[in-house]
Automatic annotation (TrEMBL):
PANTHER family: AEL197CP, MID1P. Keywords: Signal. It comes from Macrolepiota fuliginosa MF-IS2. This is FZ domain-containing protein. The keyword Amino-acid biosynthesis does not apply.
Length: 485
């Protein structure tokens, strides 16, 4: 038998630990300023941490079977002690706690707090792998989209003999009945990096800006998945902004960055066109009359514009279906439905020209003679571009005397503007998806193609996928090199 004094000492240690450690509940997020926690026993647990301030504490865990009588785990080591590394204020660890465990915090400043979640299922905190999406901006407005919170839609191809393609003026399918709870956070970009945790982004340390005029579910295309679209107002001209999306209170998507246009920018945003679902950018049109928030949608766009576009797509669909779609096959990979989908996107992108303006870092840059620039319209070729050399966007100045589009009867603008040319990939996607008898062909850079399209940004000079100077049409930092719609 142990001596009485030793038994009393062990009892005292057990009692002390039990009183100072906060018990964490399973599948629950706890916000705390404490420094010692007891973890319930489970065969497998995921522990997630989220800092709510700019402090830099360290977190240590132990799943030792003797954790009830041991001192808290810390930087000096100990039995089964591990440190949970944090990045951007977020950290996670997954392992077994057959007899429970201890979480301890070192270096937590007075008044600072953090969140801890323990789960035997999916993580309670998460950095979402897909980013929000920037649509476009004017001097004081912007269109932003959340990350896509559903997988691409699985739409069955029509079957012969009832091979029916979507109508030219098609409508969106029914949205999800139970979308996640999403919150948009927009703040002016600063030199100080922000933590990617929901409790920090919702704190007083982050000064939000702008006003959400409207938000709604939107499907930019069946291959994209559902997103929430946000219309923002009250922004400042020529200002850099950073945006995050918080999902279900504890999960974060982002950041992405975007820049508002200058105060003299004269074009108007357009969105919510069922027949052109990915057209969400500035169009060379004056602001619609008698609207509280000056932005075009399907109800305010001039009828003569929408009628003509829908007519072109209807005629194309009629020509396409003269082929025995679904019975005869011109490709083992694609069919008439793929052809119509890609043609719709190309048509919307080319008929609705996208307004923009040169980057503030190159305010005098314009494409002087696009037909002679080469692969990238504006900037060096992929083979001669050092990794640190700037890539210019496919910009084309449009004088006041020229119609915004020779394909559609858009009215003349009262001032010149700059067009962001479509990516050549919007054209080549149609060429690959459609049957040869339609005679659809894309221009070559050798024969003046760069006067109408941006070449060499996404795919390389030899057509290698993602082999261009940028590899994408736009990135999370607000760079947009050509227009994919």
């Amino acid at each position: 038998m142990l001596p009485t004094t030793l038994l009393l000492l062990i009892s005292l240690v057990l009692s002390s630990n039990a009183q100072t450690r906060t018990a964490l509940s399973l599948n629950t997020v706890t916000r705390s300023s404490q420094t010692s926690f007891s973890i319930p026993g489970q065969d497998k647990l995921t522990i997630t941490l989220a800092l709510c301030s700019s402090a830099s504490p360290r977190f240590f865990i132990s799943n030792s079977t003797n954790n009830a009588i041991e001192r808290d785990p810390g930087p000096d080591g100990g039995e089964d002690v591990r440190e949970i590394d944090l990045k951007d204020g977020f950290g996670s660890w997954t392992g077994a706690f057959p007899s429970g465990g201890v979480l301890a915090v070192e270096g937590l400043p007075p008044g600072a707090s953090f969140e801890v979640g323990i789960s035997n299922d999916s993580p309670l905190h998460e950095i979402i792998s897909t980013d929000p999406l920037f649509g476009d901006s004017t001097s004081n407005q912007a269109i932003l989209f959340s990350h896509n919170f559903t997988n691409p839609l699985l739409i069955a191809s029509p079957q012969y003999p009832n091979y029916t393609l979507p109508a030219a003026n098609s409508s969106l399918p029914d949205p999800p009945s139970s979308p996640p709870n999403l919150t948009l956070i927009v703040t002016q970009t600063s030199s100080t990096s922000l933590l990617r945790t929901a409790c920090f982004l919702n704190s007083s340390a982050v000064s939000t800006t702008g006003a959400i005029v409207n938000s709604s579910l939107w499907l930019r295309g069946p291959q994209d998945g559902w997103r929430t679209e946000y219309l923002l107002g009250g922004l400042t001209p020529s200002t850099n902004y950073t945006a995050f999306i918080i999902q279900d209170s504890h999960k974060v998507s982002g950041p992405i960055n975007f820049l508002t246009k200058s105060a003299s920018f004269a074009c108007t945003l357009i969105h919510a066109l069922p027949f052109c679902p990915s057209t969400t950018y500035a169009l060379p049109l004056p602001a619609p009359p008698n609207t509280e928030f000056p932005i075009y949608d399907a109800s305010t766009i001039p009828t003569e514009i929408s009628t003509q576009l829908i007519g072109v797509l209807s005629n194309f669909t009629t020509s396409l279906t003269t082929f025995a779609c679904g019975r005869d096959w011109y490709s083992p990979l694609v069919g008439c439905d793929d052809c119509q989908r890609e043609y719709r996107k190309w048509l919307c992108t080319t008929i609705f020209p996208r307004c923009t303006e040169p980057s503030p870092s190159n305010p005098t840059f314009l494409t002087p003679n696009p037909s002679s620039i080469g692969l990238t319209n504006a900037g060096p070729t992929p083979t001669s571009t050092p990794s640190n050399q700037q890539v210019f966007s496919a910009l084309l100045p449009i004088p006041t005397s020229q119609s915004p589009s020779d394909r559609l009867n858009l009215p003349y603008m009262s001032s010149p503007y700059t067009q962001l040319l479509p990516c050549i990939e919007t054209c080549t996607s149609v060429d690959r998806a459609c049957p040869p008898f339609l005679g659809f062909r894309c221009p070559s850079v050798m024969f003046n193609g760069a006067s109408s399209y941006g070449f060499g940004y996404i795919d390389g000079a030899e057509g290698d996928e993602r082999g261009g100077v940028a590899g994408v049409a736009q990135d999370r930092w607000g760079n947009i090199w050509c227009n994919t719609g």
